[in-house]
């Protein structure tokens, strides 16, 4: 299961838009999860009306969801200034 992370030190660089577009593409090949860790929660807002062919959740719900379901693709939308060391929790959940 690949984990694709979209991150930037700057806000407003189309991380969420890119995540939604990538998830739309990847879900044609397998189950896809978008983890919305950006404090603006834009991906979560896009998902609220429903109808998306993939799941979107916040980082707090991600661990439980990843344990209960198998995802072929995970797309992580990070907050600004998210460092490489912060990815270990996601990697740990993937390996369980």
Automatic annotation (TrEMBL):
Pfam families according to UniProt: AAA_31 (PF13614)
CDD domains assigned to the protein according to its UniProt record, in alphabetical order: ParAB_family
Domain AAA: 2-45
InterPro entries: AAA_dom, DNA_Partitioning_ATPase, P-loop_NTPase
PANTHER family: COBQ_COBB_MIND_PARA NUCLEOTIDE BINDING DOMAIN-CONTAINING PROTEIN (PTHR13696:SF96), P-LOOP CONTAINING NUCLEOSIDE TRIPHOSPHATE HYDROLASE (PTHR13696)
Protein name listed in UniProt: ParA family protein
Organism of this sequence: Pelatocladus maniniholoensis HA4357-MV3
Lineage: Bacteria, Bacillati, Cyanobacteriota, Cyanophyceae, Nostocales
């Amino acid at each position: 299961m690949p984990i694709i992370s979209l991150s930037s030190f700057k806000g407003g660089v189309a991380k969420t838009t890119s995540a939604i577009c990538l998830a739309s593409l990847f879900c044609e090949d397998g189950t896809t999860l978008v983890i919305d860790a950006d404090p603006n929660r834009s991906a979560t807002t896009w998902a609220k009306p429903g109808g998306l062919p993939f799941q979107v959740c916040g980082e707090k719900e991600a661990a439980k969801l990843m344990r209960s379901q198998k995802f072929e693709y995970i797309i992580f939308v990070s907050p600004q200034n998210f460092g490489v060391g912060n990815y270990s929790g996601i990697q740990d959940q993937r390996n369980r």
